[in-house]
Amino acid sequence: MTKEDKKLKVRIFMEVLGWPEEALTEHLKKIIEKLKKHWKILNEHYETPIKLEKVDKMFTSHVEFEAEVPNFNDLMAFCLNFGPSVVEILEPSYIHLTAGEMQDMLSDLISKVQIMDKEIKVLSAQKRISDTKLNEMKPQKDSKDDKVKI
């Protein structure tokens, strides 16, 4: 199988959320510029940021682009690292992967899940500690007359 046989043509939709408004498109453009070093970007379309109604000062925006990707492993790595909303494989309609290629991708997936799991556990523990400290700082009520003790 040649390198050409492993190339994929994909359409990807990526969303971002944040502020300030002008930073969103700039952030998406930086991601596309990084990709251009490894992928052939065929086209790209950036949406104008939209203010979220329910969240003060937050905006959302997205980019939709088509690209030629060298191989499925590169596409998988991109998905794990950048978390696009949608990935559509336009070509080829059939993909042949060796057991070694699948093992590499599964190892990358497992590694990413383990990193995220560890981060979630650390954040959860930090939140419990913060909650405990916050509760300790609250004034205590006297049960007899519901007056706050100082």
Number of separate strands: 7
Work out the strand percent: 25-35%
Q: Please identify the top-level CATH class of the largest domain.
A: Alpha Beta
Q: Helix content range of the residues, please?
A: 40-55%
Going by CATH, the homologous superfamily of the largest domain would be: ACT domain
Structure report:
- This protein is α+β, with helices and mostly antiparallel strands.
- The protein has two domains: 3-96, ACT domain (Alpha-Beta Plaits, 2-Layer Sandwich), CATH 3.30.70; 97-138.
- The protein has helices at residues 3-6, 21-36, 72-82, 99-137; strands at 8-18, 40-46, 50-51, 59-69, 86-91, 140-141, 148-149.
- The strands form two sheets. Strands 1, 2, 3, 4 and 5 form a five-stranded antiparallel sheet that branches. Strands 6-7 form a two-stranded antiparallel sheet.
- Helix 3 (72-82) packs parallel to helix 4 (99-137).
- The longest helix is centred in the last third of the chain and has 39 residues, at 99-137.
Annotation keywords:
two-stranded antiparallel ribbon; five-stranded antiparallel β-sheet; 2 domains; alpha+beta; Alpha-Beta Plaits; 150 residues
Set out the fold topology.
Layout lengths: L2 H4 L1 E11 L2 H16 L3 E7 L3 E2 L7 E11 L2 H11 L3 E6 L7 H39 L2 E2 L6 E2 L1
Antiparallel strand pairs: 1-4, 1-5, 2-4, 3-4, 6-7
Summarize it.
With 150 residues, the chain is α+β, with helices and mostly antiparallel strands. The chain contains 4 helices and 7 strands. The chain is elongated and about 80 Å long.
